[in-house]
């Protein structure tokens, strides 16, 4: 099939991704005419070292062994990460990195392209992609983060560009660090961080030349990677990136500093790490990282590759890696598909999920560094563990495999008993001690009749209580008939409902002793009078609707019922409904009460500026929007038993422009904590129907993390936490105190007990109910091993 499509190919941009794509396509079909347009000279490059993963190298080895062998000869490899903070260095091993100079990488690819017959046009500005697309069968736009191709066709690619809150500068040191080094400096202006890694190994001293030998200068193309540093590159070379928040950068005067002054400033801050040596630059400037996401990657016969299509923060070392992997996938799809449209569609389908996963990890990593000032007071080993697991790609379990001694030291510093996974350590809230850190998250069941929970609720909550979680939460229990979401929602506004809930609490306390049972109280607000979830989530009832109330008369979405704006008198009535329900909950024997101020329900509707447009004392500023939710909290806290904890669930972002910000979320959490909340349950979204959540594994946990470390208040993290490894990682890193899981507990009511069994834990944090103890070990399976060969018969 090679040669049938993409006979003439133009590549815009001579970076690693564009060059490697050109080499692969030419190698797969030597009859192709491939031209690379690069506006810079061959040896111009910005940046110094490049890190590639073993996975990427494996792909290169399979696709082009010659390029792989050339790169392998250049690589510097190391296993350790050093984390330096407040004069202390902690080292974690077993990580495995490979790096080389960017110039050397480009030189390898230049040679390969020339040997294959690719035309390289340096110092040549590429014609516009639209013009090239008329002359060539395929145009590969590998023209970087500032892609002119992407800009020219923004109406098709529909890019989303997000500029982040730190400034960084890319520098180099003329010696090789012993490990990947993270160093934290707390300056008079604020926190500054260094990211550094070796990319050129120390070279052995050259043997003395014979007296008769020609000792003239070495031809430039044979010099090692660091030749531009001056004399001998024997000490090796390292990439050095210095990064800080924008406000720190400005306070230090670096917004007004020239290149030389900036380099000298960085050298002084990290003089110990640099061993007193100077840093060097290469047209280096302070940059604010920009995340690039495109809705589409191709337009006709033009396709985006590398940074033109997507970017991921340098703190996970992914830019060149992604570009090279893009090139591999694009070449393969062009080889496998019958025409260019299907090849480009297959390329995007293959790469987009991988890139999205990498970008999620990169965003988590860059956000961690943006919030670094909130972590610097953590205990040393916890700080190091937190840094290492920041992107969620390194976890407690795989870090324990890489460096068990390091993880054991972190656990010991945190007071985790030997042999106990962090998730099975106890946690105290007011007068309640939870035996472990697992919470069964509130999940609406829509299975009540007239608000009365029945046998289903007894079995549903009872099963999860027997399953080992430290805290089991009810669904949102409505405080009035008008406050229901659907006709199937449970309530606590009648004696019959209270009696049914008492049946559940008595079962849990009798049959699952040690399990705490919490009730979540809420009012649907403008999101009420809707169908059962499986009949049409958030869709109005066909018949039998009841009137809705809200902070402002705004329907939830087109076609939804318009709510009535609550008057001051009606607010007092609703506050009384909450306190009446809280008294009943206390009488029922619930161990904990949570006030639902999230997901666009009534109290959440007061908090968000998108849903509260009031002009009285209950609207306007954040203080005004907080007034009624705090009034309700205070009233409930007054009637709720003093020794029992109260938590508050909030939506920490609306995932919509103009809504609740991360800063607002910290202020909201702080206000509830000041009024006596024992923990903040940090969820996000579901406030407006046009939200755009950034879904992904543990995607909501950074919001809980920020609140915990900004305020020192206990938090419950939620949102796609699906594994016990995630729970261990989040708790040990100090990003949360408790982890709430929903869907995993629908899949497996005994999720917590099974997590204990899978980790070989049998301690007090996860006791098996006596009738279930025979099942506390993983059931045996059929043997698959065969007799080992002992003799060789001839």
TrEMBL record:
SUPFAM superfamilies: FAD/NAD(P)-binding domain, FMN-linked oxidoreductases. Residues 203-236, 766-794 are annotated as: Disordered. Residues 225-236 have a biased composition (Low complexity). It comes from the Bacteria. Residues 7-359 form the FAD-binding domain. It holds the Pfam family FAD_binding_3. Residues 423-756 form the NADH:flavin oxidoreductase/NADH oxidase N-terminal domain. This is Oxidoreductase. It comes from Streptomyces bugieae.
């Amino acid at each position: 099939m090679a040669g049938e499509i993409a006979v003439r190919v133009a590549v815009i941009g001579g970076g690693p991704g564009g060059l490697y794509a050109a080499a692969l396509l030419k190698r797969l079909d030597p009859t192709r005419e491939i031209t690379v347009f690069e506006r810079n000279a061959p040896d111009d490059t910005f940046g110094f070292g490049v890190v590639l993963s073993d996975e990427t190298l494996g792909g290169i080895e399979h696709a082009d062994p010659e390029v792989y062998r050339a790169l392998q000869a250049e690589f510097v490899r190391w296993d350790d990460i050093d984390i330096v903070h407040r004069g202390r260095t902690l080292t974690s091993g077993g990580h495995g990195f490979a790096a080389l100079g960017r110039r050397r990488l480009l030189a390898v690819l230049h040679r390969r392209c020339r040997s294959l017959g690719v035309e390289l046009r340096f110092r040549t500005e590429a014609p516009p992609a639209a013009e090239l697309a008329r002359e060539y069968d395929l145009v590969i736009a590998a023209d970087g983060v500032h892609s002119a191709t992407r800009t020219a066709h923004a109406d098709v690619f529909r890019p989303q560009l997000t500029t982040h809150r730190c400034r960084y500068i890319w520098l180099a040191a003329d010696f090789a660090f012993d490990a990947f080094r993270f160093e934290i400096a707390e300056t008079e202006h604020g926190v500054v961080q260094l990211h550094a890694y070796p990319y050129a190994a120390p070279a052995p001293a050259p043997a003395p030349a014979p007296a008769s030998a020609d000792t003239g200068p070495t031809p430039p193309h044979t010099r090692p990677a660091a030749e531009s540093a001056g004399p001998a590159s024997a000490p090796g070379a390292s990439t050095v990136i210095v990064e800080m928040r924008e406000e720190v950068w400005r306070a230090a005067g670096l917004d007004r500093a020239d290149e030389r002054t900036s380099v000298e400033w960085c050298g002084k801050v990290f003089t110990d790490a640099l061993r007193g040596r100077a840093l060097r630059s290469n047209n280096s400037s302070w940059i604010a990282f920009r995340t690039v996401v495109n809705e589409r990657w191709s337009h006709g016969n033009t396709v985006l590759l590398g940074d033109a299509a997507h970017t991921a923060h340098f703190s996970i070392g992914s830019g060149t890696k992604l570009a090279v992997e893009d090139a591999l996938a694009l070449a393969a799809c062009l080889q496998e598909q019958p025409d260019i449209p299907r090849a480009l569609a297959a390329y995007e389908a293959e790469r987009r999920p991988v890139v999205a996963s990498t970008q999620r990890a990169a965003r988590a990593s860059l956000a961690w560094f943006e919030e670094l000032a909130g972590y610097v007071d953590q205990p040393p080993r916890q700080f190091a563990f937190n840094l290492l697991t920041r992107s969620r790609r390194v976890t407690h379990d795989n870090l324990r495999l890489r460096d068990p001694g390091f993880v054991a030291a972190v656990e010991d510093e945190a007071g985790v008993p030997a042999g106990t996974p962090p998730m099975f350590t106890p946690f105290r809230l007011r007068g309640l001690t939870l035996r472990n850190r697992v919470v069964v998250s509130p999940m609406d069941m829509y299975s009540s009749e007239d608000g009365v929970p029945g046998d289903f609720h007894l079995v549903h909550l009872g099963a999860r209580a027997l399953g080992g979680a430290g805290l089991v939460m009810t669904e949102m229990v409505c405080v009035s008939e008008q406050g229901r979401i659907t006709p199937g929602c449970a309530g606590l506004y009648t004696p019959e409902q209270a009696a049914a809930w008492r049946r559940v609490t008595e079962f849990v306390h009798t049959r699952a002793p040690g399990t705490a049972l919490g009730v979540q109280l809420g009012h649907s607000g403008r999101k009420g009078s809707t169908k059962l979830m499986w009949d049409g989530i958030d869709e109005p009832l066909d018949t039998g609707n009841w009137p809705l109330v809200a902070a402002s008369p705004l329907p939830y979405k087109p076609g939804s019922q318009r709510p009535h704006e609550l008057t001051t008198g009606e607010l007092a009535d609703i506050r009384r409904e909450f306190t009446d329900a809280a008294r009943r909950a206390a009488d029922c024997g619930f161990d904990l009460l949570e006030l639902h101020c999230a997901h666009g329900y009534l109290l959440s509707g007061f908090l968000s500026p998108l849903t509260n447009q009031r002009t009285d004392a209950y609207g306007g500023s954040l203080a005004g929007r907080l007034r009624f939710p705090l009034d309700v909290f205070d009233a409930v806290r007054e009637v709720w038993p003093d020794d029992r904890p109260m938590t508050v669930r909030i939506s920490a972002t609306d995932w919509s422009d103009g809504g609740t910000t991360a800063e607002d979320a910290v202020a909201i959490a702080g206000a509830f904590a000041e009024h006596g909340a024992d923990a903040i349950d940090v969820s996000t979204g579901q406030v407006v129907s046009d939200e755009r959540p950034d879904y992904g594994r543990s995607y909501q946990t950074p919001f809980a993390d920020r609140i915990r470390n900004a305020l020192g208040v206990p938090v419950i993290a939620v949102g796609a936490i699906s594994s016990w490894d995630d729970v261990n990682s989040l708790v040990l890193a100090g990003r949360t105190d408790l982890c709430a899981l929903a869907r995993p507990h629908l899949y497996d009511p005994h999720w917590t007990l099974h997590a204990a069994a899978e980790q070989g834990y049998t301690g007090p944090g996860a006791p098996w109910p006596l009738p279930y103890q025979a099942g506390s070990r993983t059931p045996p399976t059929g043997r698959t091993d065969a007799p080992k060969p002992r003799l060789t018969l001839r």
